[in-house]
Amino acid sequence: MRLAQRLRLPEIMDDPGLDPREHAKALRGLARLNLLSRSVSATWQQLKQMIPATESCSLTLLDLATGGGDLPISLAKKAKACGIDLQVAGCDISPVAVEFAQQSAVKQNVNARFFIHDALHDSFHEEFDFVTANLFFHHLSDDEAITLLRKMRSIARKGILINDLSRAYGWYGLVWLGSRIVTTSYVVHVDGPRSIASAYTPREFASIARRAGLEGGNVHIRWPARFLFTWTHS
User: Which class for 32: exposed (0-12), middle (13-18), buried (19 or more C-beta within 10 A)?
Assistant: First the structure.
């Protein structure tokens, strides 16, 4: 497959008619992939650097298109272990994903709030200290990505963190193989490689962020097949 340019391919996970059992199975598979790729740890390390050492009040974080909620749940647990009061929330357009995420939070004894919301098209009426997104931007067109970045900036009091896939031919093969090792979900088997084809390169995403007005953002290239974009209010 040629990957010199983005090739936006339809993903099974985006089908609202997807069997809820298969959807839940895919969410569990994605959580394992996020764990193995150390995406949560990388996001936490950057988030911790964005929190002032003198910060003593409660902080809030919203995760957009949260899926199974593993990112905000894990961030809340890491913050608690460090003595940081981080109140997390997540939104997703899928009722199945929101229910799955809320149940996961309860099982892990994490106080998290999840709600149904179309982050791209619906308005937000609440601000948060930090706004995150994990594995969502590769689903979007350039115009949609710019629109969402501007929304994130408008509701983030302190900063933004975006973790996503990085497009490269070698990563395509790695994700194809890794998805089959980590999970039996056919949804992940199909959507994983397609997501790589749809993804931005780190340089492309940095350009998109500048077009959205997020000057001064940083793109951290991560192995395997990921980048982490961070931006803070000046």
Answer: middle
